[in-house]
Design goal:
The protein is of the alpha+beta class and about 325 residues long. It has 2 domains: about 80 residues; about 230 residues, Bira Bifunctional Protein, Domain 2 (BirA Bifunctional Protein, domain 2), CATH 3.30.930.10. About 40% of the residues lie in helices and about 20% in strands. It has 12 helices and 9 strands. It is elongated and about 115 Å long. It starts with a helix and ends with a helix. It binds phenylalanine. Phenylalanine (PHE) binds next to strand 8 and strand 9.
């Protein structure tokens, strides 16, 4: 190759580059001139073999070839990319854009934990609808017609006479209507009450219902199962305490306290110095409930409990206001991801 030929070649290559009409075409030209098997290696050989006095001129010409071609190549490439359709511009070899990953909400996390523990204790999960009937939410649960919880002040009624369930207890009814004893279920879900929201109340909260029906189920079973459960949730050594209470659907009825997990029972601000935190309502299933679902109260007994998931979440995660659980402030939620 002579110097003139090289200058000629440079000019041809430049015009081919500037005329390339597609990215593929442009790449062909680049490979043909600058690629490993293109013209460039040939030029380098000619440069090496050039007589001494021509070397500087050859060196400059070879450099100009490389530089002007690669400059022309990139500027043409930019033009082509800018004017190409989006489909052409898409580079499928680029790594994708990953958005931030979500995580389970704290309530969901606690619910999964409760289910996992109860699963090991032999409970299966049952579910029911959020919109319930007066029968399953109240009547079948032995709740008298004049009970205050039925009041429109306390319950969300729908225009067709159905209601938003005020607790997860109607799932007990639905399950027993469809299954013969023995029964050992938990039922997690939302519940609705016309409460004015404050730091510890929400009109929509979550419960986990428990129901165990068999021959000879006793209060001792309730206490030992809940004690095991408390130990699994709060750590070994956690205790439970029963305080007498009243629920229409259990007799006797109790309110269940767990050892305060913050002070381990010594007394602190969280448990208002009592060493205990109220977690659940519970009791022995009232015979009237068995009658309502067609079980024979002479043959079977059972215990039931209902615990508030928000309570457990607030205690375990040290959340001071229930409303934080519903505001969906990512800065808050991220702490529990
Ligand atoms: N349903 C009751 C409530 O919401 C809790 C409960 C469930 C009590 C089962 C006893 C037995 O307060």
């Amino acid at each position: 190759m002579t110097l003139e030929e090289l200058e000629q070649l440079t000019a041809t290559a430049l015009s081919e580059l500037s005329e390339a009409s597609s990215l593929e075409g442009l790449e062909d030209v680049r490979v043909r001139y600058l690629g490993k098997k293109g013209k460039l290696p040939e030029i380098m050989v000619s440069l090496k073999e050039a007589p001494k006095e021509e070397k500087p001129a050859w060196g400059q010409a070879a450099n100009r070839f490389k530089q002007s071609l690669s400059e022309a190549h990139s500027s043409r490439k930019e033009d082509l990319l800018a004017s190409s359709t989006p489909a052409d511009a898409l580079d499928v070899s680029l790594p994708g854009n990953h958005g931030p990953l979500g995580a389970n909400h704290p309530i969901r996390q606690i619910m999964h934990r409760v289910i996992e523990i109860c699963d090991r204790m032999g409970f299966t999960v049952a579910t029911g609808p959020d919109v319930e009937t007066v029968f399953t939410n109240f009547d079948a649960l032995n709740t008298p017609a004049d009970h205050p919880s039925r009041d429109e002040q306390d319950t969300f009624y729908l225009s067709d006479g159905s209601l938003l369930r005020t607790h997860t207890s109607p799932i007990q009814i639905r399950y027993m209507q469809q299954h013969e004893p023995p029964v050992r279920i938990i039922a997690p879900g939302r519940a609705y009450r016309r409460d004015t929201p404050d730091a510890t109340h929400s009109a929509n909260f979550h419960q986990v219902e428990g129901l165990y029906v068999d021959r000879n189920v006793s209060m001792a079973d309730l206490k030992s199962d809940l004690t095991f459960f408390a130990g699994e949730v709060l750590g070994k050594g956690a205790k439970v305490r029963f305080r007498p209470h009243f629920f229409p659907f259990t007799e006797p009825s109790v309110e269940v306290d767990f050892t305060c997990h913050v002070c381990k029972g010594k007394g602190c601000r969280v448990c208002k110095n009592s060493g205990w935190i109220e977690i659940a309502g519970a009791g022995m299933v009232d015979p009237a409930v068995f009658n309502a679902v067609g079980y024979d109260p002479e043959k079977v007994t059972g215990y039931a409990f209902g615990m508030g998931l928000e309570r457990i979440a607030m205690i375990l995660l040290e959340i001071d206001d229930i409303r934080r659980l519903y505001e969906n402030d990512a800065r808050f939620l991220r702490q529990f991801a």
